[in-house]
């Protein structure tokens, strides 16, 4: 069973911050992949997570069980039914709650500043209370491996307290990430000898660059639940990377972690979550990286052509990735044809020049466009390549002014001049920033001709600077997601000028919305 | 013994390319660290590596032995003394040569397209010839683990051929990176049972995210030489990462890999090699990453102040790294005080209101600022909270215009009006985008007063749209990284208007550069 904690422990990564909307999208993607559990957040620690759980009720998850995370009740005589943190856990109304508690005597006495006996009480009573409220309860034994090495008898006593309290399963945590695989194996074996019939899980961190191997060692030693995060996001060096653990478990150890056929969605999931987090995907990540099956050396490539398995440990298609030959950036006519089929655009006719579309995609990607996340823009290119294509409107001029004057605050204003059919429209609009002003002006110009625009709204707007080392002169890529009441579509623009990049993505967004989404 | 192959296998990484001068600098750094072997290149494969070995003779390496890498002589009756590749190995005039040969029957018959017997001959004869020329010879058994699983008897026969030829040691290679730690352990044990007195090494790749664990498993099973690369650079998912393996071996397994005291140079080496390779260092890398010992949550930080070991698996000073406190909305007063200490800003006086700074950080973070990646902006806030603080300049007005007119292309222009001391400066500048124009104008206005600005350049520019669901009206956060020839600093700005957000980050960048970085 895969237990994803991207939305809780993963967000501890320095530089990562997700909005509630981002978290909902990630939860949906994880459910589509088919993980068993999604830990959504720590409702006792911040209001954003409270809102997430409130809104998550409408997600309609198909497979995953949602978990809320929190700590045991307070030491020093505290009672679970009178504890704000425990109450927040219940208020999240999730089928699963995951409760973390102390294993290591050092942490009990120095951090929690209580007695060893009191720590056992709060573990037992917190869990018993949550069980009595009908929840599936997972207990996270914090610092388990360090705690076990310091005092094995006490570490086992905390597990006994958790099971006595009614824990449905216990995840053994290598919180500081310093354990070695053989230590994990040995300690998990020792624990299972004490609790032979109880279910255990594993939660590791990558501070020794062994988090994946540690998770696999625990699975081999009998842990049936594995915690981790997408792309290994997490505090310090990250949590155990599920994008490596899942294929290792399925393809190397022969376990089944995901519903049949879902492993092929892994690469797309890894990239989508990076995109949502606005972090560049790690090209060199095992299985899902863009370079994971890329072959550079001439000998390797020649050998690859003789025998595919000679330089690949697994078939990349099994994780939804593909092998690539570096140098020639040829991804091929096949990709474009299969995209056209997917969109229902008929390109198998004299009307369309597929090679020209491919050529254009390559030119634009070289300039910084990135069509992987902007399928509406690809579809528009395919449609524009048809001989009978007629544009909805043509841009003539635009002008954007941003000014800040002492005592007058900030002003952003845009003028837009367009041709629609035979008419020339010239409008001006304000906004709270230059792109917002441009967007408002564009809609103002077009709405009289295409009232459907009234039903559209911008659902997301992302900016990525390519080649950041060129500083403020670098190319900017803008991704825009637009929605009406039935669907969403994504478009892309790129330019060294962020206003132009935004303009290009906005125009595609509007054209797609009117000409494709509007009639679908 | 640590065998570094950054300069040979590491350069197979997609996007990594080193000049001869770069390679010489890396070799010098590796020698300073104290590795046992430096594999400098493949002189038979490219002229750059021939030049490297020629110039490396003058390096005067103190500890490391330099190795040239190449393949066995040609199959089909080829002789080593008449083989261009073998000749190139000798011409490199290194004390060590490393020769790679085939283990896996699939590769012998399908890639090399020869007989199993002929493969044994070329291994034996190539090594014997090189030994006769006075070299230390290391044999790399390519695809050893895959080959052993396919045909253990033949895999062992290739090792026998290498030892018969005079190999001083053999490195077992997991070339495709697909092996699991327990397989490595089992197979190394089986090999050592056959060759109990001969020395073995290990060479792994990270395609299953187990390269570090695989190297450690082999070391535990008796391999005395470990191959890898700095920062794990290498083809596909990279080679085994020496920056994790070395501290794991020294601090977790109790082996001695480097001369006494040299481990503390590891973090500096990792960053210097990234710098030379012009790759951004991975902040989240085990041991050497900037975030490897960073603490974010308020509870963690409070605990850290009570007991340093409670949330760290090793003391970061042992690898030349340091623990850091990340300042964010989750921070308490303790985080701000630790930061002030770190910056050397004296806040323990009546001059500074720490609570006001903390309050201001929280307000700004609520508006979308994000200080954990912008330490220079925090430092400026601490300095601004001192009563004797005087600003370097004051903004009066700015105006930015972006326009696109049919037939005239794109234009971006900025006007900036500032007060510097008693003077008012009013300038205009163009740029290839609005932010670039603003940056150019700001520098134009200030450089006459602060010529140090000439030494600054923008090293990175990142944009993040917060709460993307507000579309183009969402708050924009801009992070700017600036550098001069000795240091880098990061600043932040946020506003619904991207131009204003950029302006705020630019102003902090310039002020910090002149008032802090310039005098440090």
Low-confidence spans of chain A: 327-331
Using the alpha-carbon principal axes, give the shape of chain A: globular
Rg of chain A, Å, rounded: 27 Å
Task: Tell how many strands the DSSP assignment of chain A holds.
Answer: 16
Relative helix content of chain A = 25-40%
Placed side by side, the strands forming the largest sheet of chain A appear as: 1-2-3-4-5-6-7-8
Which pair has the most extensive contact?
Answer: A-B, 116 and 113 residues
Coarse structural class of chain A: alpha/beta
The N- to C-terminal Cα distance of chain A equals 39 Å
Count of helical stretches of chain A: 17
Quaternary organisation:
homodimer
Strand content of chain A: 15-25%
The largest sheet of chain A is: 8 strands, parallel, barrel
Mean pLDDT of chain A, nearest integer? 88
